[in-house]
Amino acid sequence: MDTDHATVPGPLTGTSMSDAYVTSLGRLAYLWGWPLVNMHNRLRLTARFPAPGLLAGVVPGGPSGTLGMLHDYVRPEQRIVACPNQDVVYGFGLLAAEAGPSVLQVPDFRDRFWVIQLVDQRTDAFARMGSMYGTKPGHYLIAPKEWDGEVPPGIEEVLRYDTRVGAVIPRVFMDDTDEDRAAVLPFVERISMYPLAEFDGSLKRVDWTSAPTFAPPAEAAAATGGRGGETAWVDPDHFFDQLGTVMTEVPPRPGEEALYAWFRSLLTAAEADPALREALRRIARDADAELVAPLFQFRNIGQPSAHGWTTHRNGASFGTDYLSRTALAKANMFVNPPEETAYYHQDLDAAGDRLHGANTYTVTFTADGIPPVRGFWSLTLYDEHHFFHPNEPEHFSVGTKNKNLHFEEDGSLVITVGGDRPTRPELLPNWLPTPDAEFSLYLRAYWPDKTVLDQAWTPPAVHRL
Predict the structure, then answer these.
(1) pLDDT digit string, tens, across residues 166-180
(2) Which of 62, 184, 273, 414 is such that its CA lies 20 to 30 A from the CA of 437?
(3) Distance between CA atoms of residues 427 and 14, nearest Å
(4) Looking at 296, 324, 354, which one is the last position of a domain?
(5) Is the pLDDT of residue 103 over 90?
């Protein structure tokens, strides 16, 4: 028997494809490629920044290969990334391989918790930096995999990514006090990223409190403008027009070659058949509504935990777990790896009913049930779009950052969710106001204890009063 013949990479050109086959393969390609196309389209943001700064004063960023930093908590108006938290000072920058290498400057954070997320176009981490890793301060070179230039003296390490697009997202913990807002600034102003050509070995300082603010063009206003959901980074009508380019930007991992060839066979057939191209648009619209949209609801994703909470254990290290990769990209883009952050999501109360602002709830942490972390923890309330619900006291989350929480005599911590504003002043910090609509709760445990990672600790139930 002849065993030397090459394996055919997908269907031969010209192979007949039934409607059912095209529909099935097209839906699979949409689910698989949604996060990659999402990242591809986010690169449009860099064109809105003449220099590192803020769009409309709320969205940090800069040209490709640079980043911008906030100097306070993220504002409720931003809409570029769902599920932000109000425990850290954020930064954000996008990498583009064609822009070449960049230098990331990391200050000495001393005993302050910090983490800088570096993810490729797959939303997988290509490097790990933060308190839990003992990362040294200094200058780090972030370079495309194929870059073969000279590394100058003074670079601590070269970090490489193999896709066209990447993201760099600093997070620096800050207490919700005026004193800590001032104390965090010397650390934040020493975080920067810039092209390798600008590196001179010095420690640069940027006063992010006076960073330039740029007015967003009309088409970018949704990223900065208040109500509604996250900016629509994936358009089903153009998905299959972009997919071929995106697969070139994101090389297959070992074992994915056949999958790539399979999807390309569909694109090749569509190039020669206008009716098939139109069918793929319809398939993408249906897949967006029927496959991807339901993944926005936390109760539909991840792994079940206690009391109706769900969690996930492979954030930013999805590999071939394409379901989780797309689910997290839809519900909460840019999650950290589990050793950096454990996440718990909740849409339901203890009876299994949908959380709604018409009701009042309590979440009670016993004295020995406070989330065990070496970093910080927080319980955040999100509206139906996974953003903050604007309210007069600006209470969006509670946790380590709050220095005035009220604990009961037995040491327990009772968080009231919804209902009327507490009349007792000492209970006001423990109150999370709700919209008059469905909402979700979200618990983060940064630098979690082993008991969290092993799920020996789980969040308490959400009880409706």
Answers:
(1) 999 999 999 999 999
(2) 414
(3) 70
(4) 296
(5) yes
